[in-house]
Amino acid sequence: MPDQSIVSALVLGLIEGLTEFIPVSSTAHVLLAGHFLGFESPGNTFAVLIQLGAILAILAVYATKLVQIALALPTSAAARRFVLCVLIAFLPAALIGVVAHGFIKSVLFETPRLICIVLIVGGFILYAIDRMPLKPRYKDVMDYPPSLAFKIGLFQCLAMVPGTSRSGATIAGALLMGADKRSAAEFSFFLAMPTMLGAFTLDLYKNRDALTFDAGVLIAIGFVAAFVAALVVVRSLLDFVSRRGFAPFAIWRIVVGVAGLIGLSIWG
């Protein structure tokens, strides 16, 4: 296994962990960086499977709260409603992901120019939403009604196009539907757990015959790097969003998208 591949896997894992839970599209960053690094993955599985590291980072940070919710299920209507909301928000993307998996992986993942354009367009949209004088009605994820969760789930379906950003789509949807910035980001965290775990399981099953030992080693390296980087982001993101909003991420999306288009024009 070339040392360059190991270094690339480490770099891409760090990129995944740093960008998974902020609204900039981790998939777009990993795919574009992999393209320019010359990193190849059978069936583009690397970008999806290393997300397990990011999932475990959320579980580690929110372990206490998740246990509290689980223990409260028999007696707390709020806890049952919250779990129901997460499941309702998860279902639309799960159904589309199963049906359109082949098209997403073989066409959309292989179109870097489209990814750059979506990054730019999404950046302008996120910036506009962040600057809207919205009046939040929901400030605690435990108070979200199922109807709001379903609408957020529909927004998450937009993230099937690489560059849209799963967290960006869900956060933007939540903001437009009446959530405040902090709770919108936190609900996106919780929704990521079943969504990313489902994507991981489906992709692993679909590409089980294409994975080699070397590919597994590279995925393991990316997984560990993603876990460590995501821990840092999850622990600090909510406070950052409460202070600064989402405008910095919108600008970052635009910068990366433009840089990607320039790079593709020069190097192909």
UniProtKB/TrEMBL annotation:
What keywords tag this UniProt record?
Antibiotic resistance, Cell membrane, Cell shape, Cell wall biogenesis/degradation, Hydrolase, Membrane, Peptidoglycan synthesis, Transmembrane, Transmembrane helix
Q: Name one GO cellular component term.
A: plasma membrane
EC nos: 3.6.1.27
Output the Pfam families linked to this UniProt entry: BacA (PF02673)
**InterPro entries associated with the record:** UppP (IPR003824)
Any one Gene Ontology molecular-function term assigned to this protein's record: undecaprenyl-diphosphatase activity
As for subcellular location, the record says: Cell membrane
- Name the catalysed reactions: di-trans,octa-cis-undecaprenyl diphosphate + H2O = di-trans,octa-cis-undecaprenyl phosphate + phosphate + H(+)
NCBIfam families recorded: PRK00281.1-2 (NF001389), undec_PP_bacA (TIGR00753)
Task: Describe its function.
Answer: Catalyzes the dephosphorylation of undecaprenyl diphosphate (UPP). Confers resistance to bacitracin.
Q: Which family does it belong to?
A: Belongs to the UppP family.
Query: What is the name listed in the Swiss-Prot or TrEMBL entry for this protein?
Result: Undecaprenyl-diphosphatase
Tell me which species this is from: Mycoplana dimorpha
